[in-house]
Write a structure and sequence with these properties.
Blueprint lengths: L1 E6 L6 H21 L8 E7 L5 E2 L5 E2 L3 E2 L8 E4 L6 H7 L4 H9 L3 E5 L3 H6 L7 E2 L6 H7 L4 E2 L5 E3 L3 E4 L5 H12 L2 H10 L24 H12 L7 H8 L3 H12 L3 H19 L4 H7 L5 H12 L3 H8 L7
Parallel strand pairs: 1-2, 1-6, 2-5, 6-7, 7-11, 8-9
Antiparallel strand pairs: 3-4, 10-11
Length: about 325
């Protein structure tokens, strides 16, 4: 049996932690209930606290640890749940887990992270120079904090050998299915996915990404340029035109835009065009060619390629997945 230590962060959504624990146990129960009642369990799951006191989650939920970290022998697998939505304060509150993650990893444990739990593993140094993923919404903050990690936020799950990371909050289910196959068998993983109604084949976060407008900066000139871009999506404005509008050189615009947003003007323009196209596909039944023109793409092939590169789906596939249903119209 694989000894699993699930670290229990404080002041986070209970589903992040309890969901992992319950899903890992359900994989074994599902197999014994439906296939082999005498089968050996894969996972010996322990909810671990920093001490033996109850763990306060959000919204009044309290979890009770099975064991304190200091009382646990080094496990085979450490699973780090996601942090709270208010990421930075949650990360700082829960950094007391970092020495334990580092210690267990040094003793031979594999580390698996769910969502923003990757921040604690990265802080422990176990992700340095490795590929990893986290929730797409936390990608920029992760890169700022941990530049030595090769972050690939478009991926749903990354197995770097001794460290496994998974993306957004409910991808802990995808992680559990993956761990079931890795430590158990393909047959067990397939059955667990069926019992829990989980699509174990999700490989990309791209269809779920809803990029923000990159407005959390203090450069008023760039705010003005961003507003101009957003108001003229269909016009096909160039970087030269944007620089003229802002009364600065192209070089200055590129430099200030990247400093403010982390993007080039042309990269940002493509991003907001795709975001506008996604929103139109989600909320209207207008023909794809019509909405393509509304967001500034004249060439259907260029639009389709850019959209697929950004979302992992073609425009029509995206509409089938997220567009309005007959009952919505």
């Amino acid at each position: 049996m694989i000894t699993v230590a699930i670290t229990a962060p404080t002041d986070c959504a209970s589903i992040n932690t309890a969901g992992l624990m319950d899903a890992l146990r359900k994989t074994d129960r599902a197999w014994r209930m439906t296939r082999d009642p005498d089968a050996e369990e894969i996972f010996d799951v322990h909810l671990v606290g920093l001490d033996d006191r109850p763990i306060a989650c959000r919204d009044g939920v309290v979890l009770h640890p099975h064991v304190a970290a200091a009382q646990l022998d080094p496990p085979d697998l450490v699973v780090v749940p996601g942090l709270d939505d208010d990421l930075v304060p949650s990360f700082l509150r829960n950094r007391t887990w970092v020495p334990w993650i580092a210690k267990w990893h040094a003793a031979g444990a594999r580390v698996a992270t769910s969502c923003t739990g990757a921040f604690l593993a990265a802080d422990a140094g176990v992700m340095d120079s490795k590929e990893a993923t986290t929730h797409w919404i936390a990608a920029d903050a992760f890169r700022r904090h941990f530049p030595r990690v090769r972050l690939t936020p478009e991926r749903m799950l990354v197995d770097a050998g001794d460290v496994i990371s998974s993306g957004g909050a409910t991808t802990f289910l995808t992680l559990v299915i993956y761990l079931t196959e890795r430590y158990g068998s393909h047959d067990r993983a397939v059955l667990a996915a069926k019992v829990m109604l989980v699509d174990g084949e999700r490989r990309s976060q791209l269809p779920y990404v809803a990029s923000g407008p990159f407005r959390d900066h203090g450069d008023q000139l760039i705010h003005t340029v961003q507003s101009f871009m957003e108001a003229h999506l269909a016009a096909g404005v160039s970087v030269d035109q944007l620089a003229t509008y802002a009364s600065v050189s192209v070089r200055t615009l590129n430099r200030r835009f990247r400093m403010a947003t982390g993007e080039t003007p042309s990269g940002y323009l493509q991003r907001i065009r795709i975001e506008a196209a996604k929103r139109l596909l989600e909320t209207t039944i207008d023909p794809v060619d019509h909405l393509r023109a509304r967001v500034g793409y004249g060439d259907p092939t260029a639009f389709r390629r850019a959209f697929t590169r950004a979302t992992g789906l073609g425009p029509r596939q995206y509409r089938q997945k997220y567009g309005p249903r007959p009952r919505d119209m």
